[in-house]
Amino acid sequence: QTPKGSCLESVKIAIDTGYRHIDGAFVYFNEHEVGQAIREKIAEGKIKREDIFYCGKLWNTCHPPELVRPTLEKTLKILQLDYVDLYIIELPMAFKPGDAIYPKDENGKFIYHETDLCATWEAMEACKDAGLAKSIGVSNFNRRQLEMILNKPGLKYKPVSNQVECHPYFTQPKLLEFCRQQDIVIVGYSPLGTSRDETWVNVSSPPLLKDPVLNAIGKKYNKTAAQVALRFSIQRGVVVIPKSFNPQRIRENFQIFDFCLTEKEMKEIEALNKNVRYVELLM
Ligand code: A2P
Question: Which among 22, 57, 15, 17 has a CA at the least distance from the CA of 40?
Fold first, then answer.
Protein backbone atom coordinates (compact mmCIF):
# COMPACT_ATOMS: atom_id res chain seq x y z
CA GLN A 1 0.00 0.00 0.00
CA THR A 2 3.05 2.24 -0.17
CA PRO A 3 5.23 3.27 -3.11
CA LYS A 4 8.24 0.96 -3.34
CA GLY A 5 11.00 1.96 -0.93
CA SER A 6 9.05 4.68 0.89
CA CYS A 7 8.20 2.34 3.73
CA LEU A 8 11.85 1.34 4.18
CA GLU A 9 12.94 4.99 4.40
CA SER A 10 10.06 6.01 6.65
CA VAL A 11 10.63 3.20 9.14
CA LYS A 12 14.34 4.05 9.31
CA ILE A 13 13.54 7.72 9.95
CA ALA A 14 10.97 6.69 12.54
CA ILE A 15 13.46 4.49 14.40
CA ASP A 16 16.05 7.29 14.32
CA THR A 17 13.40 9.65 15.68
CA GLY A 18 12.69 7.33 18.60
CA TYR A 19 9.66 5.30 17.52
CA ARG A 20 9.83 1.68 18.65
CA HIS A 21 6.30 0.39 18.04
CA ILE A 22 5.72 -0.53 14.40
CA ASP A 23 2.28 -1.55 13.28
CA GLY A 24 2.38 -3.80 10.23
CA ALA A 25 0.42 -6.44 8.39
CA PHE A 26 0.87 -8.94 5.60
CA VAL A 27 -1.86 -7.15 3.63
CA TYR A 28 0.07 -3.86 3.67
CA PHE A 29 2.48 -5.62 1.29
CA ASN A 30 5.49 -3.82 2.72
CA GLU A 31 6.56 -6.15 5.53
CA HIS A 32 9.78 -6.91 3.62
CA GLU A 33 10.67 -3.21 3.79
CA VAL A 34 9.80 -2.97 7.49
CA GLY A 35 11.95 -6.01 8.23
CA GLN A 36 14.82 -4.58 6.22
CA ALA A 37 14.61 -1.23 8.04
CA ILE A 38 14.68 -2.97 11.44
CA ARG A 39 17.57 -5.21 10.43
CA GLU A 40 19.57 -2.29 9.02
CA LYS A 41 19.08 -0.29 12.23
CA ILE A 42 20.16 -3.29 14.31
CA ALA A 43 23.26 -3.73 12.10
CA GLU A 44 24.07 -0.03 12.54
CA GLY A 45 23.98 -0.54 16.31
CA LYS A 46 21.18 2.01 16.65
CA ILE A 47 18.81 -0.50 18.29
CA LYS A 48 18.61 -4.07 19.45
CA ARG A 49 15.84 -6.41 18.32
CA GLU A 50 14.32 -6.31 21.80
CA ASP A 51 13.93 -2.52 21.57
CA ILE A 52 11.44 -2.91 18.73
CA PHE A 53 7.78 -3.78 19.20
CA TYR A 54 6.49 -5.17 15.91
CA CYS A 55 2.82 -5.97 15.51
CA GLY A 56 1.77 -8.32 12.70
CA LYS A 57 -1.76 -9.28 11.68
CA LEU A 58 -3.60 -12.43 10.69
CA TRP A 59 -5.67 -11.68 7.57
CA ASN A 60 -9.30 -12.75 7.02
CA THR A 61 -8.41 -15.54 4.57
CA CYS A 62 -6.26 -17.28 7.18
CA HIS A 63 -8.67 -17.86 10.07
CA PRO A 64 -8.91 -21.67 9.86
CA PRO A 65 -6.79 -22.83 12.81
CA GLU A 66 -4.45 -24.94 10.68
CA LEU A 67 -3.53 -21.83 8.65
CA VAL A 68 -2.64 -19.58 11.58
CA ARG A 69 0.88 -20.74 12.35
CA PRO A 70 1.98 -21.14 8.69
CA THR A 71 0.65 -17.61 8.03
CA LEU A 72 2.65 -16.15 10.88
CA GLU A 73 5.70 -18.11 9.73
CA LYS A 74 5.28 -16.58 6.28
CA THR A 75 5.22 -13.10 7.82
CA LEU A 76 8.36 -13.89 9.84
CA LYS A 77 10.08 -15.11 6.68
CA ILE A 78 9.18 -11.89 4.87
CA LEU A 79 10.33 -9.78 7.82
CA GLN A 80 13.40 -12.01 8.30
CA LEU A 81 12.76 -11.90 12.03
CA ASP A 82 12.46 -14.76 14.52
CA TYR A 83 9.35 -13.51 16.27
CA VAL A 84 6.78 -10.73 16.30
CA ASP A 85 6.10 -8.88 19.53
CA LEU A 86 2.38 -8.93 18.96
CA TYR A 87 0.25 -10.94 16.55
CA ILE A 88 -3.39 -9.98 16.20
CA ILE A 89 -6.49 -11.22 14.41
CA GLU A 90 -7.05 -8.30 12.03
CA LEU A 91 -10.83 -8.63 11.74
CA PRO A 92 -13.43 -10.78 13.45
CA MET A 93 -14.86 -12.20 10.23
CA ALA A 94 -13.32 -14.66 7.81
CA PHE A 95 -13.00 -14.75 4.03
CA LYS A 96 -12.67 -17.86 1.93
CA PRO A 97 -9.10 -19.15 2.25
CA GLY A 98 -6.97 -18.98 -0.88
CA ASP A 99 -4.70 -16.70 -2.87
CA ALA A 100 -7.30 -13.93 -3.32
CA ILE A 101 -6.94 -11.41 -0.50
CA TYR A 102 -10.48 -10.16 -1.18
CA PRO A 103 -12.25 -13.22 -2.61
CA LYS A 104 -15.38 -12.25 -4.53
CA ASP A 105 -18.04 -14.17 -6.39
CA GLU A 106 -19.20 -13.49 -9.96
CA ASN A 107 -21.50 -10.75 -8.65
CA GLY A 108 -18.67 -8.95 -6.91
CA LYS A 109 -19.82 -10.04 -3.45
CA PHE A 110 -17.28 -11.04 -0.82
CA ILE A 111 -17.03 -14.76 -0.21
CA TYR A 112 -17.08 -15.25 3.51
CA HIS A 113 -15.99 -18.35 5.32
CA GLU A 114 -17.46 -19.88 8.40
CA THR A 115 -14.86 -20.35 11.08
CA ASP A 116 -14.92 -20.50 14.84
CA LEU A 117 -13.14 -17.46 16.24
CA CYS A 118 -12.41 -19.41 19.41
CA ALA A 119 -10.61 -22.09 17.39
CA THR A 120 -8.64 -19.37 15.61
CA TRP A 121 -7.76 -17.97 19.01
CA GLU A 122 -6.49 -21.36 20.21
CA ALA A 123 -4.17 -21.43 17.19
CA MET A 124 -2.99 -17.94 18.14
CA GLU A 125 -2.25 -19.23 21.65
CA ALA A 126 -0.17 -22.02 20.13
CA CYS A 127 1.88 -19.41 18.23
CA LYS A 128 2.67 -17.72 21.51
CA ASP A 129 3.61 -21.02 23.12
CA ALA A 130 5.92 -21.72 20.18
CA GLY A 131 7.67 -18.38 20.75
CA LEU A 132 6.68 -17.00 17.35
CA ALA A 133 4.64 -14.20 18.94
CA LYS A 134 5.47 -12.70 22.33
CA SER A 135 1.89 -11.57 22.81
CA ILE A 136 -1.40 -12.10 21.02
CA GLY A 137 -4.37 -9.83 20.55
CA VAL A 138 -7.23 -8.84 18.29
CA SER A 139 -8.43 -5.96 16.15
CA ASN A 140 -11.82 -4.55 15.21
CA PHE A 141 -13.49 -6.69 17.86
CA ASN A 142 -16.58 -5.39 19.59
CA ARG A 143 -17.50 -6.21 23.16
CA ARG A 144 -19.45 -9.34 22.30
CA GLN A 145 -16.64 -10.72 20.18
CA LEU A 146 -14.15 -10.02 22.97
CA GLU A 147 -16.44 -11.72 25.47
CA MET A 148 -16.62 -14.77 23.26
CA ILE A 149 -12.85 -15.17 23.59
CA LEU A 150 -12.71 -14.15 27.24
CA ASN A 151 -15.43 -16.69 28.15
CA LYS A 152 -13.95 -19.50 26.09
CA PRO A 153 -13.63 -22.66 28.19
CA GLY A 154 -9.96 -23.42 28.75
CA LEU A 155 -8.76 -19.98 27.67
CA LYS A 156 -4.98 -19.96 28.00
CA TYR A 157 -4.16 -16.34 27.15
CA LYS A 158 -6.42 -13.30 27.09
CA PRO A 159 -6.03 -10.89 24.18
CA VAL A 160 -3.57 -8.26 25.44
CA SER A 161 -4.92 -5.61 23.09
CA ASN A 162 -7.73 -4.68 20.74
CA GLN A 163 -6.79 -2.41 17.84
CA VAL A 164 -9.75 -0.26 16.80
CA GLU A 165 -10.40 3.14 15.27
CA CYS A 166 -9.99 5.73 18.02
CA HIS A 167 -9.51 9.52 17.91
CA PRO A 168 -11.31 12.69 19.11
CA TYR A 169 -14.18 12.20 16.63
CA PHE A 170 -14.58 8.51 17.54
CA THR A 171 -13.59 8.16 21.16
CA GLN A 172 -14.97 4.66 21.87
CA PRO A 173 -16.03 5.47 25.45
CA LYS A 174 -17.89 2.21 26.10
CA LEU A 175 -15.37 -0.14 24.52
CA LEU A 176 -12.53 1.72 26.23
CA GLU A 177 -14.18 1.29 29.62
CA PHE A 178 -14.86 -2.41 29.00
CA CYS A 179 -11.29 -3.03 27.85
CA ARG A 180 -9.92 -1.15 30.86
CA GLN A 181 -11.88 -3.44 33.17
CA GLN A 182 -10.55 -6.47 31.32
CA ASP A 183 -6.95 -5.24 31.21
CA ILE A 184 -7.02 -5.11 27.42
CA VAL A 185 -5.06 -2.24 25.89
CA ILE A 186 -6.82 -0.24 23.20
CA VAL A 187 -4.56 0.56 20.27
CA GLY A 188 -6.12 3.38 18.30
CA TYR A 189 -5.79 3.33 14.54
CA SER A 190 -6.41 6.37 12.36
CA PRO A 191 -5.49 8.58 15.35
CA LEU A 192 -5.16 11.55 12.98
CA GLY A 193 -8.39 10.92 11.13
CA THR A 194 -6.95 8.89 8.20
CA SER A 195 -5.59 9.99 4.84
CA ARG A 196 -9.19 10.59 3.64
CA ASP A 197 -8.73 8.25 0.73
CA GLU A 198 -12.24 7.95 -0.67
CA THR A 199 -11.74 4.33 -1.72
CA TRP A 200 -11.90 3.22 1.92
CA VAL A 201 -12.65 6.26 4.07
CA ASN A 202 -16.04 7.71 4.92
CA VAL A 203 -15.22 11.31 3.99
CA SER A 204 -18.65 12.61 4.96
CA SER A 205 -17.20 12.94 8.45
CA PRO A 206 -15.25 16.22 8.54
CA PRO A 207 -11.44 16.31 8.59
CA LEU A 208 -10.25 15.83 12.16
CA LEU A 209 -7.14 17.98 11.90
CA LYS A 210 -9.18 21.04 10.80
CA ASP A 211 -11.11 20.93 14.05
CA PRO A 212 -11.20 24.42 15.68
CA VAL A 213 -10.95 23.08 19.25
CA LEU A 214 -7.87 20.95 18.49
CA ASN A 215 -6.27 23.90 16.69
CA ALA A 216 -7.08 26.40 19.45
CA ILE A 217 -5.67 24.12 22.15
CA GLY A 218 -2.63 23.52 19.94
CA LYS A 219 -1.99 27.24 19.69
CA LYS A 220 -1.75 27.51 23.46
CA TYR A 221 1.04 24.91 23.60
CA ASN A 222 2.64 25.82 20.29
CA LYS A 223 1.59 22.42 18.94
CA THR A 224 -0.35 21.31 15.88
CA ALA A 225 -3.84 19.81 15.88
CA ALA A 226 -2.19 16.46 15.05
CA GLN A 227 0.01 16.65 18.14
CA VAL A 228 -2.98 17.57 20.31
CA ALA A 229 -5.01 14.65 18.90
CA LEU A 230 -2.18 12.21 19.63
CA ARG A 231 -1.55 13.65 23.09
CA PHE A 232 -5.26 13.36 23.89
CA SER A 233 -5.22 9.65 23.05
CA ILE A 234 -2.09 8.73 24.97
CA GLN A 235 -3.24 10.78 27.96
CA ARG A 236 -6.41 8.64 28.17
CA GLY A 237 -4.37 5.46 27.90
CA VAL A 238 -4.97 4.73 24.22
CA VAL A 239 -1.89 3.63 22.26
CA VAL A 240 -1.55 5.56 18.99
CA ILE A 241 -0.16 4.38 15.67
CA PRO A 242 -0.01 7.55 13.53
CA LYS A 243 0.95 6.98 9.92
CA SER A 244 3.13 9.31 7.93
CA PHE A 245 5.54 8.96 5.05
CA ASN A 246 6.79 12.51 5.43
CA PRO A 247 9.99 12.89 7.50
CA GLN A 248 8.92 16.21 9.01
CA ARG A 249 5.52 14.88 10.07
CA ILE A 250 7.05 11.63 11.35
CA ARG A 251 9.15 13.80 13.69
CA GLU A 252 6.25 16.11 14.51
CA ASN A 253 4.11 13.17 15.62
CA PHE A 254 6.79 12.14 18.10
CA GLN A 255 6.97 15.56 19.80
CA ILE A 256 4.08 14.90 22.13
CA PHE A 257 5.85 14.08 25.37
CA ASP A 258 6.77 17.64 26.38
CA PHE A 259 3.31 18.99 27.13
CA CYS A 260 0.24 17.93 29.06
CA LEU A 261 -3.43 18.68 28.41
CA THR A 262 -5.45 19.89 31.40
CA GLU A 263 -8.47 17.95 32.63
CA LYS A 264 -10.69 20.68 31.17
CA GLU A 265 -9.02 20.39 27.76
CA MET A 266 -9.34 16.59 27.85
CA LYS A 267 -13.09 17.00 28.52
CA GLU A 268 -13.41 19.56 25.71
CA ILE A 269 -11.76 17.16 23.28
CA GLU A 270 -13.82 14.20 24.51
CA ALA A 271 -16.92 16.27 23.74
CA LEU A 272 -15.91 16.36 20.06
CA ASN A 273 -16.92 12.70 19.74
CA LYS A 274 -19.31 12.25 16.81
CA ASN A 275 -19.65 8.47 17.08
CA VAL A 276 -18.96 8.28 13.36
CA ARG A 277 -16.24 6.06 11.93
CA TYR A 278 -13.93 7.09 9.14
CA VAL A 279 -13.15 3.43 8.50
CA GLU A 280 -16.53 1.75 8.16
CA LEU A 281 -15.22 -1.69 7.14
CA LEU A 282 -18.43 -2.30 5.25
CA MET A 283 -17.25 -5.76 4.26
P1 A2P B 1 1.59 12.06 5.23
O2 A2P B 1 2.02 10.65 5.07
O3 A2P B 1 1.73 12.87 4.02
O4 A2P B 1 2.18 12.72 6.46
P5 A2P B 1 -3.79 8.30 10.31
O6 A2P B 1 -2.54 8.07 11.12
O7 A2P B 1 -4.94 8.78 11.13
O8 A2P B 1 -4.12 7.14 9.44
O9 A2P B 1 -3.49 9.53 9.33
C10 A2P B 1 -2.59 9.40 8.28
C11 A2P B 1 -2.70 10.59 7.37
O12 A2P B 1 -2.38 11.79 8.09
C13 A2P B 1 -1.73 10.51 6.22
O14 A2P B 1 -2.41 11.00 5.09
C15 A2P B 1 -0.60 11.44 6.62
O16 A2P B 1 -0.03 12.03 5.49
C17 A2P B 1 -1.30 12.47 7.46
N18 A2P B 1 -0.47 13.00 8.54
C19 A2P B 1 0.38 12.33 9.34
N20 A2P B 1 0.92 13.11 10.26
C21 A2P B 1 0.40 14.35 10.07
C22 A2P B 1 0.56 15.61 10.73
N23 A2P B 1 1.38 15.74 11.76
N24 A2P B 1 -0.13 16.66 10.24
C25 A2P B 1 -0.97 16.53 9.19
N26 A2P B 1 -1.17 15.36 8.54
C27 A2P B 1 -0.49 14.28 8.98
Answer: 15
Q: Which residues contact 194 (CB under 8 A, 6 or more apart)?
A: 201, 278, 279
Q: In the chain, what percentage of residues exceed pLDDT 70?
A: 100
Q: Is 74 a pocket residue for ligand 1 (Cβ < 6 Å)?
A: no
Confirm or reject: Cβ of 253 under 6 Å from ligand 1. Answer: yes
For ligand 1, what atom is nearest to the CA of residue 278?
Answer: 7
Ligand 1 atom closest to 190 (CA): 7
Give the CATH number for residue 238.
Answer: 3.20.20.100
pTM above 0.90, yes or no: yes
Please state, in angstroms and rounded to a whole number, the distance separating the CA atoms of residues 69 and 46: 31
113 is in an annotated binding site: yes
Given pLDDT bands bounded at 50, 70 and 90, which one contains residue 5? confident
Q: What atom of ligand 1 comes closest to residue 167's alpha carbon?
A: 7
Whether 193 is in the pocket of ligand 1, judged by its Cβ within 6 Å, is yes
* H or E element that contains 58: strand 53-58
Closest Cα to atom 9 of ligand 1: 194
Q: What are phi and psi of 99, to 5 degrees?
A: -75, -30
> Contact at 8 Å (CB) between 256 and 227?
yes
Q: Considering the domain boundaries, does residue 282 fall inside one?
A: no
* Residue 90 domain flag: yes
User: Would you say residue 105 lies in a domain?
Assistant: yes
Query: Total structural domains in the chain?
Result: 1
Residues of the domain holding 116 = 6-271
